Structures are given as structure tokens and as C-alpha cells.
Amino acid sequence: MGELKRKLDTDYVYFAEVEMLLNYGIGYPDLIIRLREKIHQEGLEDSVYVRKTDRKLLQNVHRFIELLDGSDEPILDDESQPHEKWWWHLRSIARGKHPSLTLPSYLRDVYRKRRKYWKQRGKENLYNRSYWMEPRMYDMRI
Description:
Shape: globular
Largest sheet: none
Low-confidence stretches: 126-132, 135-142
Oligomer: single chain
Number of helices: 6
């Protein structure tokens, strides 16, 4: 019973953390990425909580990255991780540059519908530092 409870808790904690962060700005974005990795390791990909939360995270990826960049431990895309582990590549997803076929089927439509909008948004913000692009260092010398 303890093993079952532990696995059920992981997917619900992931759901609750994303809800709290995106709805109220309360939480730890870096923890969400680690929780998603744990879900993958535990084989909980088919949980209703996980699928619902994955969709919400992908739909709100720009807001999530803004919160991630403002956290104590901002995380960049981890190129050592395969593209199938999409949660390690949220910045490339936000730029519309992630290969859609590496996403789970339940996320592909969400990504494809929003990708065109995200790419256009990136062009409009070409000269402005946007919260969903890579953090940059600017030379402030005059």
C-alpha cells in the first residue's frame, strides 16, 4: 500500500505545484521540472493528473519560463537530455523550435496550434528581451 500511495502522491504533487505556480505565482519552478522527471522514472506518464498538468504547462510555457527565470535556481534547457524528455527543453518549445514528433501524442496538437503564434511573437520581440527567450548578458558600457 505504501508503494502505491507514494506513486499516486508524485503525480498529484506535480499537478498541485503547477496549479499553484501558474494560478497564484507560488511555488518552485525548478521543483516542477524535477517532479516531471520523477514521474517519468516511475512510469506515471498515463496518469490523468500528469496529462492534464502537462497540457497546462505547455499552454502556459512562457509564463512558466518567466517564473523560472525569476526563481533562485533558473534552469536552462538541458541539451544532454533527449528531446522525448520535453520538460528539459521548455525554452526551445517556447520558441517553437522543438521537434513536435518527440512530444507525446496528447501534447502534439497543443504545441502545433500554438507554435505559429509563438514564432510570430518571437519576431515581434526581436529587439526586446522577452521573458521566454534565453537569458542574456548585456554590455551596459556607454
